[in-house]
Amino acid sequence: MIPSRISRAPEAGRPVLIALLAAGRGRRMLGRDKPRLRIRGQSLLQRLKNTVSTVGLPMIVIDGCHRRKNGLPHVYNRAWRSGMGSSVALAARMALSLPIRPAALILLPADLVLLDTRLLPELIRIWREKPGSAVATAHHGLPGAPALFPPRDWRRLARLRGPEGARRLLRQSSMPVRLVDGDGRMHDIDTLQDLRLIREQLAPDHRQPVTKQLY
Hints:
Number of helices: 7
Structural class: alpha/beta
Low-confidence stretches: 4-12, 207-215
Oligomer: single chain
Helix content: 25-40%
CATH architecture: Alpha-Beta Complex
Mean pLDDT: 78
Number of domains: 1
């Protein structure tokens, strides 16, 4: 489903579009739907939605293995089994196909938690200083997600395939990629152990074990 409210955006002040990448199976989570995992009563998807809402930008969800009814604009990735690259490519193709293109595209993985609410505005602020450059979040000095891409990069994103996302493009960009420090400003959840540690960190009393069910 192409989000019509994005395609009707006025020419002046076109918004930055956020693509929430949520198509994977969650193999290391034993097949559980990661965006639906709950931490202190909220799913990861709801937490990210709340963070994005503070920025006031349109968002779409790239669905795949787990198709969800969550009230958000979404696009189904039929090639989700091939890996993250297909979701990135689909987000880029959708941005290219809109009658009025977004000003830029932010790729935001759905397994992030404790995302600093200031990070997305910082990506946009740095990009506006030099709109032709991509802006990525630095993890130990290396570019990664969340990352913002101007329209010049979308066709290369649209050709991505396989398990690797946009990281390779960020590291091979023909133009400099500007970086925002991301160390300590988010956590990703790849395994059940990651989930347990985050729940313990956010528990009202860290001394109490976290026993809440995954869903």
